[in-house]
Amino acid sequence: MESTLLLDRLIGRISTKFTEQLITESLYYNLDFLRVPKFPIYRNSSINTIDFDRSEGKFLLSGSTDSSIHIFQVDLAPDEALYYDEIEDEDDEEIKTHRYKTKALGDLNKRNHDDAHNFGVTCTKWWPFDTGMFLSSSYDGNLKIWDSATLSQAFQFELDMKINNFDISKNINSSLICVATESSHARILDIRTTSAAHTLTGHHGSLLSCKWNPRDPYVLATGSSEGEIKLWDIRMTRSCTNDLDLYKTDVQSEVPLKRKFVGAAQDIVKAHSNNVNGLEFLENGQTLVSTGTDDKIRVWNLDQSINTLLNFGPFVKNKKTIHKSMIVTPIEEMEVQYLLYPSDNGEIIMYRMSDGKLVTRLRKVNVNETLKSQNTCLTYCGFNSAVYLSGTSDGRINAWGNKRNSLIDVNDSDF
């Protein structure tokens, strides 16, 4: 396939960008568990959160229930010798030299670091624009900013309440962080001023998820334990601009009165019938994907504020109130977008975003592997790699991708 594409590119039939998209999309046809890279197993804790840096494509963060944060350097350079599933002797030194290389760079926990979190880590994120710092939150009520070079704490926001999730604005001119806590208020923190910039009130339950709009640095979405999803514009006096309603499926449709009696005595506009613990915007900023502990995934058209009724089938399992990380494949890497979802049944399920069609169900097959192991979090390694890393409830970090990955470096200078 690659040789034909390169020939078409060489004679000018297709562009470099289109060639790159076709090759990347082909990697999704046969996703599976990868035996490399390998990471240490943290048997006494569950991995709650992981994040792979998008600026250099080398570093992985993970946070666990035992309050520890682990930092790894991961070499994801493609190499045919990496995929050695047909080779039986894994102790062969020649094989070891060709594996994806992983190197532990740091371990921050309350046993070896005075500034480490006291309770389970709920979210870790790299600063979006470089790897000079990263952020972490915990049930101890603190959001910490770390210096990557020294692994020392640069600053700490003390919120005095459990933090369930946070998100960093991806706008380069913004320094804002939205924090979802056990209270019904969303907190907006400003790193430049090291202070709270806004408090967004209006939810009836504790906040479990939050997400900034990728197109508008002042707009965000939040999800609560009462099934609410609210959209906010922090420039406005009345910041809440919309409440998404699961019954609003058409611009002209009337919302039935029965919504007033679902799960609460108050008149609450619900997007899900239970906790909303996952949110993800598409790149256009006008489409939002949400998930809740009602075992549903919903797609919202924000232009019209309607539930699109896209059906993702019966395999969605989501019963835990912890934040659920979903990933929509980048539109710039391929024409067809997929949604990857870590289901509570231990699988990573991949759906086609356009129609909700089930594409594949990924599960690690190993006779020695406990069936109770669940994928709790998910991150994409980016750079057209089609490689994903997941954290599990039994302290493992697993890699997923195309075992026959033969991604080629497509560059205009090559032609």
Automatic annotation (TrEMBL):
<keyword id="KW-0227">DNA damage</keyword>
<dbReference type="GO" id="GO:0000209">
    <property type="term" value="P:protein polyubiquitination"/>
</dbReference>
<dbReference type="GO" id="GO:0043161">
    <property type="term" value="P:proteasome-mediated ubiquitin-dependent protein catabolic process"/>
</dbReference>
<dbReference type="GO" id="GO:0000109">
    <property type="term" value="C:nucleotide-excision repair complex"/>
</dbReference>
<dbReference type="InterPro" id="IPR015943">
    <property type="entry name" value="WD40/YVTN_repeat-like_dom_sf"/>
</dbReference>
<feature type="repeat" description="WD">
    <location>
        <begin position="269"/>
        <end position="303"/>
    </location>
</feature>
<dbReference type="GO" id="GO:0031464">
    <property type="term" value="C:Cul4A-RING E3 ubiquitin ligase complex"/>
</dbReference>
<keyword id="KW-0677">Repeat</keyword>
<keyword id="KW-0853">WD repeat</keyword>
<dbReference type="InterPro" id="IPR020472">
    <property type="entry name" value="WD40_PAC1"/>
</dbReference>
<feature type="repeat" description="WD">
    <location>
        <begin position="200"/>
        <end position="235"/>
    </location>
</feature>
<protein>
    <recommendedName>
        <fullName>Anaphase-promoting complex subunit 4 WD40 domain-containing protein</fullName>
    </recommendedName>
</protein>
<keyword id="KW-0234">DNA repair</keyword>
<dbReference type="InterPro" id="IPR019775">
    <property type="entry name" value="WD40_repeat_CS"/>
</dbReference>
<dbReference type="InterPro" id="IPR042238">
    <property type="entry name" value="Rad28/ERCC8/Ckn1/ATCSA-1"/>
</dbReference>
<dbReference type="InterPro" id="IPR001680">
    <property type="entry name" value="WD40_rpt"/>
</dbReference>
<dbReference type="InterPro" id="IPR036322">
    <property type="entry name" value="WD40_repeat_dom_sf"/>
</dbReference>
<dbReference type="GO" id="GO:0006283">
    <property type="term" value="P:transcription-coupled nucleotide-excision repair"/>
</dbReference>
<feature type="repeat" description="WD">
    <location>
        <begin position="114"/>
        <end position="147"/>
    </location>
</feature>
<dbReference type="Pfam" id="PF00400">
    <property type="entry name" value="WD40"/>
</dbReference>
